What we know:
The chain has about 260 residues and is mostly helical. The chain has helices at about 5-10, 15-35, 50-60, 65-80, 95-105, 110-125, 150-155, 160-165, 165-170, 175-205, 210-240; strands at about 35-40, 45-50. It has a domain at about 85-245. Helix 5 (about 95-105) runs antiparallel to helix 10, helix 6 runs parallel beside helix 10 and helix 10 packs antiparallel against helix 11 (about 210-240).
Amino acid sequence: MTDMQSQTWLRTNGISTRKLALTATFAAVYAVFRLIPISRTIGIPGSITAGGVILPVVALFLDLPYAVASVIIGTFIAAFAPWNPLRFLGLDFLPGVIYVTIAGLVLRGQRKLASAIFLVIILVFSVTPNTEIFVGQNLFSPPIPYYWLHIVALTILISPLTQRVPLLVKSGNYAEIAKAVAIVAFVGTMAEHLTGGILFALVVGSGALKAWPLIFLFYPIERLIITVGAAAIGKPLIWNTRKIFNRLEPQTKRERPE
């Protein structure tokens, strides 16, 4: 296949070299962030990384299929580092894929679909073997749902606040952009965390039951760090390139022909 034929095939299938270049770029950027540790994982070797910090930007710059591809590629690139091996039977990309999917849907005004996905994740976690729903009795307190903060995130996701996110991102107001990124990062990282919990329970087995009370104590801090970090990094990036977002449209609309 000649270069001209390749370009024709790409255009015919709605793929541009610019999109491919951005996908490769963000895959590399995501890989770098996945190499930055935030805290140690509990129950298995490894670290909680800063990968989620950059995902709101990835979700905004790339259409959903390309964003998902960049997360998958970036995950496997980062796995070449000795201190960041694959831990979940090669499915380590799934939490990041869920994060960027929910973030991308919210940014494009599809919060109902994002909410449905989030709710399904909570239900799947609840019925997965070796997960624990109530951990309070193990902490000398009334039973508290392990995913209490995830329920908060789902509540925010279905609220009118999230409905305004696409407008906030394109508002041109620095504070409004920061708010939008923080909302997207919070709901995304909470969905990411619960997806990781499902994989953890399936891979570790009954040993996971001992870890849930300790994870319960520390995960709000980790998710707060990721949310704040995403807002701090995403806000200036979006602010300085906000003109390109005038073309950001809901995925339900068809692209105009060039």
